[in-house]
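I'd like us to work through together how a protein chain folds, taking it slowly. To get us started, please write out a protein record for me. Go ahead whenever you are ready, and we will take it from there:
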Amino acid sequence: MRLMALDYGFATVGVAVNDELGIAAMPLETIVRKNKNKLRKTLARIENIIYERKTELIVLGKPLNMDGSEGDMVKSCSEFKEMLEKRCRLSVVWQDERLSSREAREILVAGGIKERHEIKKNIDSIAAAIILKEYMAISGK
């Protein structure tokens, strides 16, 4: 099954996909938005990736607080989830994303990337790959 994971943020959306065999989760890109309320171009780019990759399911990181409660970001992310489902006509499932950005930063630093702009450019797509990897491990997909 071809999967896509998204790490939604106000300024960016990290995108990751699985390989053709469904074994590995790979960072793909980070979609940058100029305005947090404008999602038309972001959704259009996601639609293009769905078409290009023949995506069958979207995994969306759910930004829970460390205690498991839902904060303001979950509300915004839920609205984004509804837009995705309506526009892309695919199922969108939640995956807990707690600590994914921290783990992504650690991966980048361990890989020798120390410049702030390089970390910022790559962190969201790597976080999306972590979200996808965890979903694949839990779901068996």
Notes: The mean pLDDT is 93. Residues 116-139 form the longest helix (24 residues). The first strand starts at residue 3 and ends at 8.
